[in-house]
Write a structure and sequence with these properties.
Blueprint lengths: L3 H35 L2 H9 L1 H11 L1 H4 L11 H24 L5 H36 L8 H27 L2
Helix pairs in contact: 1-2, 2-5, 3-6, 3-7, 5-6, 6-7
Length: about 180
C-alpha cells in the first residue's frame, strides 16, 4: 500500500526547496549581481529596495513554493520569521544605499528620501499588497468580471499592478518632495 501522506510531504518539501532556490539564489543573488554589473546604480538600488515586494508577489501568487519564505501576515514557523526578516533587511539595505548614494541633496533631504522610501516601499506594501489584492479579487468576482478559469492569471496581473503602483508612488513622492 502506498503511503500518500509521505508522498504529499515529499512533494511539498520539493516545492519548499524549489521556492528557496528561486527566491534566494535567483532573485536575491543572481539578478542583483547582473543589475549591478550591467545597469546603472539607480536601477540596481531600486530593484534591491523592492526585493520584499517581489517576495510578496511570489508568495501571494505561488503560495505552495513561496508562502513558507515570505508571509507578511503571520510568521508561524521559525523559518518564516527568519526569511521574512532577512528579506525585509535586504529591502531596507537597498533603501539606505539609495539614500546614501543620492548626489546633490542635503543631509536632511537624504533622510527624508529614505523615510519616504521606507514607508512607501517597505511598510505600506508588506500588508497592503495582500489586502488590496484580496479586495480587488472579491470585487472582480462579485461583479462577474472574473471567471474561475481566469483566477490565476488575473491574480498575478492584479498583484503586479498593485506592486508597480507602490513603486510608482515611491518615485512620485520622492520626485515631488526632493527637487
Amino acid at each position: 500500500m502506498t503511503d500518500y501522506k509521505h508522498l504529499k510531504h515529499e512533494h511539498s518539501k520539493t516545492k519548499y526547496i524549489t521556492g528557496l532556490i528561486i527566491l534566494f539564489l535567483v532573485f536575491i543573488f543572481v539578478i542583483p549581481y547582473l543589475l549591478y554589473k550591467y545597469t546603472s546604480f539607480p536601477i540596481f538600488v531600486t530593484y534591491f529596495a523592492n526585493v520584499d515586494i517581489i517576495a510578496n508577489i511570489l508568495a501571494i501568487n505561488f503560495p505552495a513554493y513561496f508562502h513558507h519564505l515570505y508571509d507578511p501576515l503571520s510568521q508561524t514557523t521559525t523559518w518564516q520569521y527568519v526569511s521574512f526578516n532577512l528579506l525585509s533587511l535586504i529591502a531596507l539595505t537597498g533603501i539606505f544605499m539609495a539614500g546614501i548614494h543620492t548626489k546633490g541633496l542635503t543631509k536632511t533631504e537624504r533622510i527624508i528620501t529614505m523615510i519616504i522610501m521606507a514607508i512607501v516601499t517597505w511598510t505600506l506594501p508588506t500588508q497592503g499588497i495582500p489586502y488590496l489584492n484580496n479586495e480587488v479579487q472579491k470585487y472582480l468576482k462579485l461583479d462577474g468580471i472574473l471567471k474561475k478559469e481566469e483566477d490565476k492569471k488575473t491574480k498575478v496581473l492584479v498583484t503586479v499592478l498593485i506592486s508597480l503602483g507602490f513603486i510608482f508612488l515611491e518615485y512620485l513622492l520622492i520626485s515631488l518632495i526632493v527637487k
